[in-house]
Amino acid sequence: EVQLQASGGGSVQTGGSLRLSCAASGFTFSGHTVGWFRQTPGKEREFVAASSWTGSLKYVVDSVKGRFTISRDNAKNTVYLQMNSLKPEDTAVYYCNVRVGWKNYWGQGTQVTVSS
Predict the structure, then answer these.
(1) Residues paired with 55 in a beta bridge
(2) DSSP 14
(3) Dihedrals phi, psi of 79, to nearest 5 degrees
(4) pLDDT for 55
């Protein structure tokens, strides 16, 4: 059974940093692209960042470019999202994601709140 366990969220002030982690199990982690999405109330879930299975290719949405970094440790089956220079508009529930076969899997989400 595919499982994704996200952690690391919290409350910070503008300009602060957080590192999210997502521990994966139930599939061959090193063979899959993994990503992070975020969602605020009343809005659709939006893509934030993704890492190819080797970590050599990384994608981030323009709004977080230069501030957020995605990385992964295939030995630990874990993907990370380092978030620096946080802004109030980064406030959201953050979800890790993987597509295995034809199905999308989501972690339970971790709340990030940035106050001004």
Answers:
(1) none
(2) T
(3) -115, 145
(4) 87
